[in-house]
Amino acid sequence: MDAKELRATLRADLPANRGYPKSVLVVVLLRIAQFVRALPGPAGRLAYIGVGAAYKFVVEWVLGIEIPASTSIGPGLRLRHGVGTVVNPRAVLGSGVMLRHGVTIGNRRSETDCPTIEDDVEFGAGATAIGSVRIGRGARLGVNVVVIDDVPAGATVYSASTVTRQSRRRAPEVGGQAPPR
Fold it and tell me: Whole-prediction pTM value?
């Protein structure tokens, strides 16, 4: 990432996180860390030691958001709350991806067994994508969904819980004890 790419990416990231100051802080620090990480030579590596440590301290340790600077992430990354979000450094995220709190994007069996997330995908709170899956453009993943298979573009994936109401007439309590069922 060069300075021109950094500016262009931030021009997409900042409006995408307007109204979420913590998210703005995270994406700005992420993009600076990515920029410094890409600097060539020993000076770049040395600079990244300081910037990378500051990024890790603030974003991971203080804010509880694990998005490594080595992760490939397109412009317009949107974070909503973010706490508990974990992204594997080998995952690939497209442009305009939204990550809510508690999202996990990671490997399943090996280090390189990571998801590819296309543009404009939205992750609900607690959603998880693991393994070599592809989540198509514009897909939406609901709350607490676990994705282990490809998701087509534009699809909505959700998990439903069924609440069963049992209405059983209970006999009045006798002698302070409930009657047997």
Answer: 0.84
Q: Which residue has the tokens 């490939």?
A: 72
Structural domain includes residue 29 = yes
DSSP, collapsed to helix, strand or coil, labels residue 96 as: coil
Domain span including residue 82: 3-157
CATH number for the domain harbouring residue 70: 2.160.10.10
Gap between the Cα atoms of 103 and 100, Å rounded:
6
Number of domains the chain is built from = 1
The rounded distance, in Å, linking the Cα atoms of 79 and 59 is: 12
Tokens linked to 24 = 């703005």
For 51-80, write each residue's pLDDT tens digit.
Answer: 999 999 999 999 999 999 999 999 999 999
